[in-house]
Design brief:
Elements (H helix, E strand, L loop, with lengths): L1 H10 L4 E5 L3 H13 L10 E5 L4 H9 L14
Parallel strand pairs: 1-2
Length: about 80
Amino acid sequence: MLPEFVEQCVRDRVALICVVGEKSDLVEDAIDWLIIGDGSDHNRFIVTSSHKDEPLGDVIDFARAWPGIEGEAQQVVL
């Protein structure tokens, strides 16, 4: 499920993925490795951030304030 989500984000040219929750650092690392792949495609780039102890609303505000974000920040639950 996570690999498919990340590939869709790459195709959609998502600028930022914020991960919220207790093990968000582990999920963020997994996403980073899925984005990087074998490292041969330098166009595969998405900024990721981990928010272990932050309220969801604060993280959504963070995402909305990110430079270059067009449209609404979306919450995805996997």
